[in-house]
Amino acid sequence: MACRAVAFAAQAPFTAGGRSRSRAGVAHGAPLARPATSSSGLATQRQRAAGRRATLAVRAGVTVASAADIEALNKHFGIPGRVDVIAGPGGLPTVRLQHACGSSAEVTLFGACITSWKQASGDEVLYMRPDAVFDKSKPISGGIPHCFPQFGPSDKMQQHGFARNVDWQIASTSADPQPDDRDPEVTLVLTENEYTKSMWPHSFRVVYSVALHGELLRADMRVLNTGLKPFDFTAALHTYIEVVDVEQAKVSGLKGLTYLDKTADPKKPVEKKEEREEVTFTGPTDSVYLKAKDYVELDVGSGAAVTITSNKWSDVVVWSPWTAMPDCYRSFVCVENAQFSTPVTLKPGEFWRSQCEWAVKDL
Ligand SMILES: O=P(O)(O)OC[C@H]1O[C@H](O)[C@H](O)[C@@H](O)[C@@H]1O
């Protein structure tokens, strides 16, 4: 693991001094997916969608966040040029991280969703579904949304839990003062409120840090039981990755694992064994690989792969909706780190921590 950013209280805005120097990236110039909806096409789509939703939000009298709110957050937490609070998609307050090497990432406070991760070349790695909306009427459909405290359907709460459907708070921002290693980072926090308690009667704190280390994206999630009784949870980082075409995409690192095939009925999965060296896509796919290894790779079909290295996430989910989403299924695959097969039990005062790193490599 590379060194962590030194925590830097953002109340005193930090302007990194010293010479500016980019780190060698993971895959400078690696050719990323360029499907029919290319990265630039996607970005344009996203801006258009954002514009549409902003208009709707005003018409409906919904205030996503005023410019003054965003300015105040930026004044408090911004580290100019490295960590900036901006009006993101649909005007949602969004933290933009920019690494000295040219890479960037964006995280919305609504849902703590990583909506964008770009390499230094400007290539977007993540995928935003065309039906994504940014007015808080539903979770953001794309990027890396959270599933917490529930992965999948539940009788007690919405599919995949409430974390992707509520506002998180910025706890801190940082940038490493070492001139060679300026990892911009934001830490977001979610705690219980009346809404979460109506579905899940527990006191908790989720602390989620997102950082850029060169072109590599890093997420660190901690869940703390702040209440007086134990609770169980499941979770996932529901990562949407853009591919050239779903039929050219391949996931490796899953051979030999037992998986739950949820395609027929998510509530009654069928247990199977993965015999394939590379998982390819020829129809709807919804598989939870149990006790997965800490490394999987998604070949996006352009001569590049997204590598996913994790720690403490027990399972990997591979999902393609296929023609159930006719407008977009060809352009993405979800490869998700999940904690599903063994729910985590936390006693009062206990915490669980998991980490994940995404990088791009040439094949
Ligand atoms: O549409 P969403 O609620 O975002 O869920 C999208 C998908 O997420 C996961 O990958 C699950 O395994 C699927 O069963 C589910 O359909």
TrEMBL record:
GO terms for molecular function: carbohydrate binding; glucose-6-phosphate 1-epimerase activity. It catalyses: alpha-D-glucose 6-phosphate = beta-D-glucose 6-phosphate. One of its GO terms (biological process) is carbohydrate metabolic process. SUPFAM superfamilies: Galactose mutarotase-like (SSF74650). The keyword Isomerase applies. Keywords: Isomerase. InterPro entries: Aldose_1/G6P_1-epimerase, G6P_1-epimerase, Gal_mutarotase_sf_dom, GH-type_carb-bd. GO terms for cellular component: cytoplasm. Its EC number is 5.1.3.15. It comes from the Eukaryota. It holds the Pfam family Aldose_epim. Belongs to the glucose-6-phosphate 1-epimerase family. This is glucose-6-phosphate 1-epimerase. It comes from Chlorella sorokiniana.
